[in-house]
Amino acid sequence: MGRETALASLNMEMRRGTIVLCVLSRLDKPMYGYNLVGELEKKGLPVEANTLYPLLRRLASQGLLKSSWDMSTAKPRKYYVITKKGIEIRSQLKSEWKQMSDAMNKMIAG
After folding, report:
1. Is the pTM value of this prediction over 0.70?
2. Containing structural domain, residue 66
3. Could you give the percent of the chain with pLDDT greater than 70?
């Protein structure tokens, strides 16, 4: 495995560990998947739709998101929004993220 391939693979692993918190942080208001892809990209975390949609379904099945269909347009869209349980989990994840981030900053600083 070449250096660039190894780096890309490791970078992808790091991103996977952060995407749940990022998604939960963007869904205080209802959004459909493609809109969420754009929001994440604007915030510096580009994500492929084929990665995001299974994650949205999984978070909904865990009760962290609620989904609903908007059939009022020519193209129906499935919207997702965070639930009360999702807000509680997000708060805990944010706390864990801060602790990990602080520890990592200490480690990589030398």
Report:
1. yes
2. 3-108
3. 100
